[in-house]
Amino acid sequence: MPVPDDDTAATMVDAAGLPPLEGPQRTAEVLTAMAHRCADWDVWGGPRAIRYWDALTSRVRQACYAGPRLSLWWERLTVQMSLTPPPRKADRALLASLLAGGGDAAVLDVLRREPEALVLRVRVAADTRREARAARAADDETEGEPDAELPF
Amino acid sequence: MDDDPVRAAWEASGSPVTIAPDGTGRCARCGTAGPVTRWRDVLSANFGDWDRLRWRDAGAFCPCCAWAFTCKPLRIRAHVIEPGRMEQVTPAGLLAVLSLPVSGSTLVVVPVAGKKHVAPWAPWGVVATDHEQLAWTADDAARLAVLAGLRSAGFGEASLAEAAPRWPILRTLGADDRAAVIAAWPGLLPWRQRPSYLAVACRATRKPKEDDAGA
């Protein structure tokens, strides 16, 4: 199934229909969604999948202690969650703009205090996306490869 | 209005004498002089709130205070006390009372564990519970409505104290309900920082048991 060029972590969370966030909360939400989109399912698939969301929640918080900048947070999270680089060009550009966007302390504060709520919003977005894809596939009556990138 | 809610409740209950006085003296709780009962006949040996009895050296209780300490329903069930009114309430009744701010002429007693004397220490205008006496404002009444909505959506007492909604419950809801739950969840943050509020609100939103109408 073709993926639109403007599909990014930001459009993914917007499509969930949840109450919108603003400011540092919005940045933190999109960064969390980005981490989810970069998950390596060769690592987190199979039996490990059952604890993927709990692991993401705890490691989003733990990575806040890597240092005072968001780039350090992302670097620590990449190692701890075995994240791959963003596979899509639009996501790479978005990630670079978020990490260089400033206000790191406020975003890190949100990531440290509210990882449960952020990860839950991403989980709802991922679930909404999966259901939408399933509905489209049923409508088209076509068989495609299962979405290996976002199985939840 | 009587300054002492316990005396108002006792009088509203018909001024019962649960333990016959065996002497005269001063009451250890309220300081009233008159017929009294020795503390050993009123309190168990496990009583640990001696420092809250202002005239504890007297070692005895007047009939009113003896009733307050020996009235078991008052220790384990929710009650609403007003001048001339002392009523045990069901969860639905408690919900109705707490849906409005608690006025200065009302005392709401909500024991949680049922192991501590709650009413004897409470002033007017609060919700008295195990470890705290809670002011119940319009904000709290609004939060109670939010909590009742979340409970009706399927979230249990333990899950309401958590930082985010539980996914197994959230995933069963429709898209609009999911968004409403996620929007409402942070509204209970002040209560999560003071769990006594959550405990009282959960008592008010429980389903009544078949064999027990008390909250």
Overview in brief:
By secondary structure, chain A is mainly α.
Give the tally of β-strands of chain B: 8
Q: Name the quaternary structure.
A: heterodimer
Shape of chain B: elongated
Distance separating the two termini of chain B: 27 Å
Proportion of residues in β-strands of chain A: under 5%
Determine the fraction of residues in helical runs of chain B and give it as a percent range. 25-40%
Using the CA coordinates, give the radius of gyration of chain A: 15 Å
Number of helices of chain B: 10
Explain this structure to me?
The complex is a heterodimer of chains A (152) and B (215). In chain A, 62% of the residues lie in helices and 0% in strands. Chain A is built from eight helices and no strands. In chain A, helix 2 crosses helix 8 and helix 4 packs antiparallel against helix 8. Chain A starts with 8 loop residues before the first helix and ends in a 12-residue tail after the last helix. The model of chain A has no long low-confidence stretch (mean pLDDT 89). Chain A is an all-alpha fold and 152 residues long. With 215 residues, chain B is α+β, with helices and mostly antiparallel strands. Helix content of chain B is 36%, strand content 13%. Chain B has ten helices and eight strands. In chain B, strands 5-4-6-7-8 form a five-stranded mixed β-sheet, sandwiched between helices. A three-stranded antiparallel β-sheet of chain B has the order 1-2-3. In chain B, helix 1 packs across helix 2. Chain B is elongated and about 70 Å long. The model of chain B has no long low-confidence stretch (mean pLDDT 92). At the A-B interface, helix 8 of A face helix 8 of B.
